[in-house]
Amino acid sequence: EFSIVGSLLIILFFVYVNFSTGSRFPWSIYPAFAVIWWPLAVFFGAKKGKAFSIIGSLSIIGFSIMANMITSPSYIWFIYPAFAVIWWPLSIILAKPRTIKAYSIFGALFILAFCAVDNHIHSPACPWVLFTIFPVLLWPVCVLLGKKILRLPIVLGLSAAGIAYYTVLNLLVFPGFPWAIFPAYLLAWWPLSVAFARRRRVMLFSLCGTFLSVALFIAVNIITTPQTVWAVYPIFALAWWPLSTYYFVYMPRKITGLQK
User: Whole-prediction pTM value?
Assistant: First the structure.
């Protein structure tokens, strides 16, 4: 009771000072927002974590909406603190071993919903939210698959699906420059890492990784500046990777094995 009465008296004091000084800007909402955490912490605190996270997040969202409408109603920015603070109750309620799958599903859908709203409000002419769909959905997919995600056939399938998704996006939605080669290059490292690096086949990993990078530099060179052959420079640097692996990793292991 003391926390409620005390917080109300403090808020009323700030409101009185705000309007008695002739200020047109309602700055009293800022200290008032800070003061309300006193009774909230007293009544809920650590023993009622779920209720505290829900009420606390709703308080922050309400304050953000109020501040947004008062200070800059022409620009909607309250969605950003709202997006951040909703993870508080979401994590308290679902981020547990028994509900981690549901947490990943709801979390991924929440991220996609936020990106879609932000895209629609601030840049509706460019549907950039489409770029986020595949990587965000990988989160629940990996959680649902569990240890199966380390299997090479599954990794190959997911990597191929991502490459196909961005290729279609490049051809149909964002045509022109073939930018899909860059996410394809990154996604190709996933099965390479599982097939070779995870199994300690360092020599094969260095060779395949080098060939993949060489192919990317040659493709970018041909697409962007075919009149200037600059790809030889990064290719020369990349060649040291398999050479170093051969002489400093592969050969010492082979010699050690022969001696045994």
Answer: 0.84
CA 90, CA 85: separation in Å to the nearest integer?
9
For the record, the structure tokens of 110 come out as 């929440």
Q: Are 133 and 139 in contact (CB under 8 A)?
A: no
Asked if residue 202 lies in contact with residue 249, where contact means CB atoms within 8 angstroms, the answer is: yes
Contact 107, 139 (CB under 8 A): yes
Q: Which residues contact 127 (CB under 8 A, 6 or more apart)?
A: 119, 173
In angstroms, what CA-CA distances link 240 with 218, 219, 244, 245? 18, 21, 6, 8
Q: Residues 33, 63: contact at Cβ < 8 Å?
A: yes
Q: Is residue 118 classed as helix, strand or coil in its secondary structure?
A: helix
Q: What is the DSSP string of 16-65?
A: HHHHHTT-SS-TTHHHHHHHTHHHHHHHTTTTTHHHHHHHHHHHHHHHHH
DSSP 8-state assignment for residue 227: T
Q: 3-state SS of the chain: helix, strand, coil percent to 5?
A: 80, 0, 20
The pLDDT tens digits of the residues spanning 44-81 come to: 766 778 888 999 999 999 999 999 999 889 999 999 99
Q: Which two tokens stand for residue 230?
A: 């600059």
- Ramachandran region, residue 194 (left: φ > 0; alpha: ψ -120 to 50; beta: rest): alpha
For 108, counting Cβ atoms within 10 Å of its Cβ (0-12 exposed, 13-18 middle, 19+ buried), the class is buried
Dihedral of CA 84/85/90/91: which sign?
A: positive
